[in-house]
Write a structure and sequence with these properties.
Layout: H1 2-14, E1 20-22, E2 35-39, E3 46-49, E4 55-58, E5 63-67, E6 74-84, E7 93-97, E8 100-104, E9 108-113, E10 119-126, E11 129-132, E12 140-142, E13 146-151, E14 156-161, E15 174-181, H2 182-193, E16 196-198, E17 208-214, H3 218-228, E18 231-236, E19 239-244
Parallel strand pairs: 1-3, 6-7, 16-19
Antiparallel strand pairs: 2-5, 3-4, 4-6, 5-6, 6-9, 7-8, 8-11, 9-10, 10-13, 11-12, 13-14, 15-17, 18-19
């Protein structure tokens, strides 16, 4: 029966769906520390309750790793997640992503670390966090409304005041593009809609895109793009083919 209870707890921890996913670790199933992982695929979002009671919202194609010990509040992130951390002065909460470490006691913040962007971005919505990046001895303090972007390739970072609420609207099915290079915009669409976009990158060089998409179908999104960049496109199952419409 003891092993059966452990198996049930592990199964609950790795189950992914569109709705909330609660990791069943707070009932004392585990007598020893276990390493757990939760991930989402393209087109999926998920909400996870961690052993300490903190909440994590996972964006598409995101993976987190953590320990079942509720006092070990260390998360390894690959992708994008929004954290609502339960306050605990005795046990700081740490998120490791792309060589950086974000340390908090209790607050709400968003961290993005997708490989294609080449950076790690941390945005603070409430409370206080500090971020450590490779090559810098001092921690970077963030207050609500502040954002740090660490460039992994260059080893540099920028800190700015922004509307950090825009960084979590993905939870509501909204995508915001702010002068986004076309290849990065396409990658965001592939991740969100679980599609493959086939196009000639040379035809879209030096093209950037700004705007927002609010729960639109992929066909409506392509129509929206066509208003800015004249394109021809086809959608077949999970494959989107597009090209520049040179007649315009």
């Amino acid at each position: 029966m003891r092993f059966l209870r452990i198996a049930v707890a592990v199964a609950a921890a790795i189950f992914i769906s569109w709705g909330s996913v609660f990791v069943a670790l707070r009932s004392g199933y585990f007598d020893r520390t276990e390493r757990l992982a939760v991930s989402t695929r393209a087109g999926e979002h998920s909400c996870v309750e961690l052993p300490d009671g903190s909440q994590v919202w996972l964006n598409s194609e995101t993976r987190i790793e953590f320990l079942s010990d509720r006092q070990s509040r260390r998360i390894i992130l690959d992708g994008e997640a929004c954290f609502d951390v339960k306050h605990d002065e005795q046990h700081p909460f740490c998120v490791e992503a792309g060589g950086t470490v974000v340390r908090v006691l209790g607050t709400k913040f968003n961290v993005r670390c997708y490989a294609e962007t080449g950076n790690v971005a941390a945005s603070l919505l409430s409370g206080h966090i500090e971020m450590r990046v490779p090559g810098f001895n001092d921690a970077i303090d963030l207050l609500p409304g502040e954002k740090v972007v660490y460039d992994i390739r260059e080893g540099t970072f920028t800190k700015s005041h922004v509307n950090t609420n825009n960084d979590i609207v993905w939870q509501n099915g909204i995508l915001i593009f702010n002068n986004e290079p076309f290849p990065l915009m396409v990658k965001m669409l592939e991740r969100y809609y679980n599609v493959e976009v086939i196009y000639n990158e040379t035809d879209f060089e030096n093209i950037h895109f700004s705007g927002s998409i609010n729960n639109l179908s992929i066909n409506k999104v392509l129509e929206f793009i066509d208003l800015t960049i004249p394109i021809r496109y086809t959608v077949e199952n999970k494959t989107v083919r597009m090209e520049v419409d040179k007649k315009h």
